[in-house]
Design brief:
3-stranded antiparallel beta sheet
Length: about 80
Amino acid sequence: MPSNQTEIIKSLLKVQNEIKNPANTAVNPFLKNKYAPLSEVLNLIRPLLTKNDIVLIQDTGASGEDKIYVQTKLLHTSGETIERK
């Protein structure tokens, strides 16, 4: 990770210290296993990110004929960012 991400990393450490695993409340109809729905994960993480000056942005995209991806960006109030797809 580049060294110019000091502030966002400090904030993410604070989030990591507070976060708890969401409950596995949904059931996969095919495999019959339980999982935490994305909506519950986001409802848990967004307030913690906001409290620590981080915005979460997700968008979809495509590369090639059959490759679809989700790109995730974390933006800090300092202007620092982390993004992955």
